[in-house]
Amino acid sequence: MKHKKALVILTAVGVLGATAVTGASGLVDKVSGLLRSDIKIVVNGEQTTLQPVYINGKAYLPVRDAAGVLGYEVNAAGKQIQLQTKKEQPPVDEENQHIQMNGVVVSKTDLDGITRLEVRGDGAGWMILGIDSDSVIVNEDGVAKTIDDIREGTALKADYGPIVAMSYPGKSHAAKLVISTDRLVREDTVTKVSKSEDGWQIFLGPENDAQGLQLNTDSDTIIVKANGERLKPEDLKTGTKIKAYYGPATTRSIPAQSTVQLIVVEPEKDAAQ
User: Fold this and answer.
1) How far is residue 227's CA from residue 269's CA, in Å, rounded to a whole number?
2) Range of the domain at 219
3) The pLDDT of residue 2
4) Are residues 244 and 170 in the same domain?
5) Are strands 154-165 and 136-139 parallel, antiparallel or unpaired?
6) N or C: which end of the chain has fewer CB within 10 A?
């Protein structure tokens, strides 16, 4: 047996009582006790570092240390020592910490084993999202998908972050991608821009030809320059070179008509070539 150390301690009417509040009545008594480091205190099957002090055949434990092991907080208020149940912290909702974005994939690259998606849309407007084994990819019905199901023109909702690189476009890790539909992609030159009661129409190709296309804008249509600057439909002019993401449904008319989700205006130097 290990050597028992003799201690002189101060007690306030019992070091650890059975009630939550222990009152100190009378004067503080000076007593002697033995520290029993050879006795192990086990709580719910787990050994603690608590060491009892024996006084007149009774085992005593430090109030604050013992209360902490048992799930209590200790507050000293005047001549009272109060034990209160610890307030549990609510679990962190990681999903609510993510940033959301609805957009269209405009490019997909692989680098060092990580797939990077360039997404343009609402929210941040322009993001580079890294996809790895921790990224969840599903369709709108919750069916699991893979990165191979995503390509240029894929419309999706992305949950990313909460850490975002301070760059432009921003860069972050994609926690979850919900794939919507694959948009049709067409790179062409604007031949006409008009406005009606239903909104703006952007024409590509010959207006009265089967090769022509009428893109109809709505409140969700996003028009941006290649550098991310937002534009309005009226900013588009005849001769402007664009890449349009639309559909996938189109009318069987001449020209075919479809709702456009995203228009990226190419740099002027490319339009002049």
Assistant:
1) 13
2) 184-272
3) 43
4) no
5) unpaired
6) N
